[in-house]
Each structure stands twice: as structure tokens, then as C-alpha cells.
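Progress note, project year one: complex with pyridoxal-5'-phosphate.
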Amino acid sequence: MTRRNHDIAELKRLDVAHHLPAQSSYKLQRDIGGSRIIVHAEGSTIFDGDGNAILDGMAGLWCVDVGYGRAELAEVAREQMLELPFYNTFFRTATPPPIELAAKLAGLLGGDLQHIFFNSSGSESNDTVFRLVRTYWGIKGEPERKVFISRRNAYHGSTVAGASLGGMSYMHVQGDLPIPGVEHVMQPYVFGDGFDEDPADFCARAVQDIEDRILAVGPEKVAAFIGEPVQGAGGVIIPPDGYWKGVEAVCRKYGILLVSDEVICGFGRLGEWFGFQHFGITPDIVSMAKGLSSGYMPISATAVSSDIVETLRSVDDDFVHGYTYSGHPVAAAVALRNIEIIEREKLVDRVRDDIGPYFAKALAKLSDHPLVGEARSLGFIGAIEIVARKGTNRRFGGKEGLAGPIVRDACIGRGLMVRAVRDSLVMCPPYVMTHEEIDRMVSIIAAALDETS
Ligand code: PLP
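Model obtained:
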């Protein structure tokens, strides 16, 4: 493959002149003279236009699970484009790839989750959840069940419904969100909110908060609870033991649908195909995206239980929801091949038995650093908490913290891409990362912390 030669200075100029990147400050974009431009990637390494090789501790945006440079994914896209680049799945038409992918996903999900609706992004998947759940309750004869319970600091996307379901207050400011019918309860953030508490007591308190809110709203008005098995964008919040079983029991007690947002946790991230399998629960709906195609094509999926499908099938009405690109044949073909790679290379086992434990051990070395309050991971996702005083959960500069972005920038400068969430650094690397690269990631973080102390 011949790589294109880019005029980076010109691209940066055009970036400022014409391009509005996602989730960005346009003032900062202009002030720094344009975005960082990534031009190429291979394995677990990205290369920017200034010639820097950067180890990607974030798998792009929590998604490039099989790593960069997979020629067979490009080939399968090419073949599908030549055979049939597009046909829609509206009005009872379909093409082969989404049908085959739905059957494949049904096998991986198991149990009662045997039907799949396709979208192009995690946000759209959660919009589908929003309309599907309310439609379901309407058909069931309980149209007053409209309320969704979510957690503060959750991330469920950036569309109006996705950002409303999400619990990030700064995302609610723009656009006057959340829309009515979403209630946010406490997150199971042991380090942040249960620091001095016995973990079992904290867990019981977090589950109780959900039940209290259901009772306050009125159980007959609550439609669903939605949560990420491990909150990713909120800072890799790993719930305490027993939390998810507790949430499931509360949902069952009040007949509330349980939605697992697996956009990050799905496809092996926690060492099982899906996060709900790791936590031993049975959701009614599963949202997935990102690792579904390892980010090679935009595609997401919403899996639903047979009860939901049978309910929709009990009426003649169309489910009047869907996108032009629902079940896009090229995206579905790429996703199928991506899953085949994960299976063939036993990447889920690799996360659970090899790189997951190796990563946990490597991260644990950072626990001794005077600025680190906690280093935690599950499978191949993790975080470190930066604290102003060892032995506490006190941040630099107050609750939100100031140190995270400084340490993140120091990491990038040393050749490692990580993200800062408040005063924590989060990591979600590709499953192909080697032991040597994991060691390098941790030593760069240690050096960046030293530089900051
Ligand atoms: N849900 C979760 C758990 C996510 O982490 C994300 C994105 O990070 C989304 C939904 C939204 O996905 P997208 O950005 O593809 O719309």
C-alpha cells in the first residue's frame, strides 16, 4: 500500500478554516493552530503528521479492539462494496450481511437475546432503546411507564436522547437537557463517593438509591434502568462486588426493563464477550457499537429479548424507527469479519487470561507513586486516580481536579495516548498490545507523574 504524503501545515490551516471536530473547544482548536492530525496507524501505534509515533492506550476512542492495519477488514469492505455497496433495510427488505451478523450476535449473546436492530453509532443505539422501550410499554397497555433511570456521570451518547440518558451534567447545559422522563441516581464510584465506606455498605447504598428513586417516581411509571457494566467515559468506574446482581434484583422486583449499554464493554473488553456475562446478569436489552467493528466502520446494534419482540409482533403497526444506514451491508460485513478475527485469535481469552492480568500487575506498580490514590482495572480497561495527598481521595484544585489533563499531555509528549477524566487517567488499549507495550505504557505514565510532582 502506498501511503499518501500529506501537507500537514496546510491541513491544519484548513482544519481551522473549515472543520469543526467533535466534542472540541473551537477556540482552543483555533488558538493551537489546528487539531493533532493522525495520518497512519499499525498494531497499537498511531502516527501523527509531525512524525511522532504514539502508543495508543485508548484504542482510538475505546474501539479499535483488534488493532490497526487489518488488511482483511479492508478487503471484506471492498468485496462487499463491489457486490452491493448499499441497500436499505426499510419496509421489510434486507441484504445478506446484517442478517448473518444478527445471527452471529444472537449466538454470542445467548439466552433470550436473539433479535438485533442495527444503527450506526452507540448514540443511535440508545435512541433506539429509548423509543423501543416506550413503544413496548405502550403495546403492553402500560403507556405511563415512560421514565428511564440512569446514573450520574454515565455516558450513553451525544444525541438528544443519548445525552439525556447520560448523566454528565456539563453535557446537559448545552441543548437544555435532559429531556423529560430521565432520572439520574448515584454511580457506584467507590474511590470517589465511597472512599471511607465498607465496600459492601457502599454497594448496598448505591442499589438502595435506585430503589428509592423508583419508589419516589412510582414504580408503575418506570420503564427501564440503563447502565454501562463498567462506566467508561465517566472514568472507568468499576462497580463493587454484588452491585449488578443488586440492580438486576431491583429491576425484577418492579418489572422494570434492564438495559446494558455495552458500547465499550462488549466484545471482550472485560474478558467475556459481554460485560453482563462477566457480572452474571440477564439484561432485557443490550446496546453495542465500537468493538462490534473495532471502529473500522460505523455500526451499532441493539439486542432485545423475545418478550420485547413478541410484544412488537402482537400488533400490526410498524415500529416506525430506523436510519438509512440501519444494517448497512458494508459495515455489517466488516463487523462479521472483525468478530471472526476476535474468535480466530482468541482475543477474549487473551484479555481474560493474559494481557488483562498482566495489565493489572503493571498498573499496580503505579499504586506506590506519591500522586496515585488508586490504580484499578478489569479485563483490559483501567484507570489511575491522581490525588493531592496520598492515602486520601483529595484532588488538586478541588472536586474536579486539575492534574489529569497535565499528566495526560505529559504522556502524549512522551509517546502515549491516554485520556484524562477529571483527575484520573483512563486506558482502554487494543487487545493486540504486547507485554512490552504495556510495560512501556506504564513507565511513560510513571515518568509523566514524576514530571508533574
Ligand atoms: N454508550 C457508551 C457506553 C459509550 O461509551 C459511548 C461512546 O463513547 C456511546 C454510548 C455513544 O457512542 P457513539 O459515540 O458511537 O455515538
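The CA atoms of residues 364 and 443 lie 12 Å apart.
The two ends are 44 Å apart (CA to CA).
No further modelling is planned for this target in the current period.
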